[in-house]
Structures are given as structure tokens and as C-alpha cells.
Design goal:
CATH class of one domain: Mainly Beta
Strand content: 35-45%
Largest sheet: 4 strands, antiparallel
Strand order of the largest sheet: 4-3-6-7
Structural class: mainly beta
Radius of gyration: 29 Å
Distance between the termini: 96 Å
Shape: elongated
Oligomer: single chain
Number of helices: 2
């Protein structure tokens, strides 16, 4: 029976675990699929705003944003931002239902505003954005 000290056993184990490079003939090599075949590419999301009632100084507004369906039902959410100049005056989010979402907007002050609707993307669709400028009189 062979008895080893802890230090000697560690040296034997580390020597046994050291692995060298072994070449394998091409016929025995396992085929590897290219990365493009393994990962499915997401369809580009086309975001639009088919319905928009601009807010006024006296009443809020409403918009419907949607993702054009090409590869299944889009999931995820929209983030809606309204800016007046560089200042963000409204920030909202809405979950998609049936590929679309409805967002109500509050009353806004007089002036030019910019609306930005961003889609978060999902397994089938990449991120997308829609923009619109409007004026509150």
C-alpha cells in the first residue's frame, strides 16, 4: 500500500489533471453548426402610431402604438416619452396586448412637442422606434 502526504497527493493529482493538446483526424471531428444557423435572428420591428389625438391645454390626448406583425404576435412593452425642447414632460410605459398598446397623455402646455415611442423587442422582434412632432395651441 502506498501512502502519500497531502502535498505529494496534490502534486500527483495536478500532474494527472494536466491535459495536453490532442489532435484528432478530420473524419472523427464532430460537425459544428455555424453560429448563424443556431441563433435565430429577430425580425426588424416596424413601430407605427396609427391613432393619435394630440393633447391640448384643456384636455389630455391618446395614442395607439403597434408593431407590424410578421413573425408571430409581438410581446413586450412600449415606452412613451413626450419632450418640449430638451425637457421630458411625459414618461409612460404600456404593455402590448395583441401587438398594440393604448396610452393616454395628460394636458400639455402650449408649444411644440416631440413624441417618441420605443418598443422593447422580444424573442421574435428587435427593438423599434416611432417619432412624431405635434403642436399644442
Amino acid at each position: 500500500m502506498l501512502t502519500l502526504t497531502r502535498r505529494a497527493a496534490t502534486a500527483v493529482l495536478s500532474a494527472a489533471l494536466t491535459v495536453g493538446v490532442v489532435s484528432m483526424p478530420a473524419a472523427q471531428a464532430a460537425p459544428v453548426a455555424p453560429a448563424s444557423a443556431v441563433a435565430q435572428q429577430a425580425t426588424a420591428a416596424k413601430v407605427d402610431i396609427p391613432y393619435f389625438v394630440a393633447p391640448t391645454r384643456k384636455a389630455g390626448g391618446e395614442l395607439v402604438a403597434r408593431v407590424e406583425r410578421k413573425a408571430g404576435l409581438p410581446q413586450g412593452q412600449f415606452k412613451v416619452v413626450v419632450k418640449k425642447g430638451k425637457k421630458v414632460v411625459v414618461r409612460k410605459s404600456a404593455k402590448l396586448v395583441g401587438g398594440r398598446a393604448t396610452v393616454t397623455l395628460p394636458k400639455l402646455t402650449k408649444g411644440k412637442h416631440k413624441l417618441v415611442v420605443r418598443y422593447s423587442g422580444d424573442a421574435h422582434y428587435s427593438k423599434g422606434v416611432a417619432r412624431r412632432a405635434f403642436k399644442v395651441a
